[in-house]
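Batch job 17 of 40 flagged for manual review because the log was empty.
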Amino acid sequence: MPEYDALSGLTQAQQRIFNVLEKVGQAGITRNDLFERIYGDDPDGGPDSRNILNVQRTKMQRGLAKHGLRIVTQGGHYSLWRLEKI
């Protein structure tokens, strides 16, 4: 499946984002909940800013596009994130 090929070019943190988005499917996940799933087990609490997810998403988009995928966000402050085939 292209989804698993897409993992090869991602950093460990990006792979964790990808895996969560793949697991939640089209229902999506809020940025806050995604942050908690990615960094909730970090003893330091993770990065100071949740904006790191936006930065990672931007970095991931080109590589994912090569595999026919993209990360879609919709909404405002409580935007839903999901993985989508293009």
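Reviewer: the log was empty due to a logging misconfiguration, but the result itself is present. The chain has one domain: 2-85. Unflagging and moving on to job 18.
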